[in-house]
Amino acid sequence: MGNCCERAGNFFGPQKNTNVRVSLPAVCFVWQIAMIILFGVFIRYDKESDAHWPETKREENITSDVENDFYFRYPSFQDVHVMIFVGFGYLMTFLKRYSYSGVGFNFLIASFGLQWALLMQGWFHSLDPATGKIYIGVESLINADFCCAGSLIAYGALLGKVSPVQLMVVTLFGVTLFAVEEYIILDLLHCRDAGGSMVIHCFGGYYGLAISWVLYRPNLHQSKRLHGSIYHSDLFAMIGTLFLWMFWPSFNSAITDHGDGQHRAAINTYIALASSVLTSIAISSMSQKRGKLDMVHIQNASLAGAVAMGTAAEFMITPYGSLIVGFCMGIISTFGYLFVTPFLEKHFKLQDTCGVHNLHAVPGMLGGFIGAIVAAAATEEVYSKEGLINTFDLEGKFKDRDLGTQGGFQAAGTCVSIAFGLIGGAIVGFILKFPIWGDPADDNCFDDETYWELPEDEETVPPVLEYNNHMIHKQQDIRSESNFSVEQS
Amino acid sequence: MGNCCERAGNFFGPQKNTNVRVSLPAVCFVWQIAMIILFGVFIRYDKESDAHWPETKREENITSDVENDFYFRYPSFQDVHVMIFVGFGYLMTFLKRYSYSGVGFNFLIASFGLQWALLMQGWFHSLDPATGKIYIGVESLINADFCCAGSLIAYGALLGKVSPVQLMVVTLFGVTLFAVEEYIILDLLHCRDAGGSMVIHCFGGYYGLAISWVLYRPNLHQSKRLHGSIYHSDLFAMIGTLFLWMFWPSFNSAITDHGDGQHRAAINTYIALASSVLTSIAISSMSQKRGKLDMVHIQNASLAGAVAMGTAAEFMITPYGSLIVGFCMGIISTFGYLFVTPFLEKHFKLQDTCGVHNLHAVPGMLGGFIGAIVAAAATEEVYSKEGLINTFDLEGKFKDRDLGTQGGFQAAGTCVSIAFGLIGGAIVGFILKFPIWGDPADDNCFDDETYWELPEDEETVPPVLEYNNHMIHKQQDIRSESNFSVEQS
Amino acid sequence: MGNCCERAGNFFGPQKNTNVRVSLPAVCFVWQIAMIILFGVFIRYDKESDAHWPETKREENITSDVENDFYFRYPSFQDVHVMIFVGFGYLMTFLKRYSYSGVGFNFLIASFGLQWALLMQGWFHSLDPATGKIYIGVESLINADFCCAGSLIAYGALLGKVSPVQLMVVTLFGVTLFAVEEYIILDLLHCRDAGGSMVIHCFGGYYGLAISWVLYRPNLHQSKRLHGSIYHSDLFAMIGTLFLWMFWPSFNSAITDHGDGQHRAAINTYIALASSVLTSIAISSMSQKRGKLDMVHIQNASLAGAVAMGTAAEFMITPYGSLIVGFCMGIISTFGYLFVTPFLEKHFKLQDTCGVHNLHAVPGMLGGFIGAIVAAAATEEVYSKEGLINTFDLEGKFKDRDLGTQGGFQAAGTCVSIAFGLIGGAIVGFILKFPIWGDPADDNCFDDETYWELPEDEETVPPVLEYNNHMIHKQQDIRSESNFSVEQS
Question: What parts of the sequence cross the membrane (chains A, B, C) (predicted)?
Answer without folding.
Answer: 22-43, 80-98, 105-124, 136-158, 165-186, 198-216, 228-247, 267-286, 298-317, 323-344, 356-378, 409-432
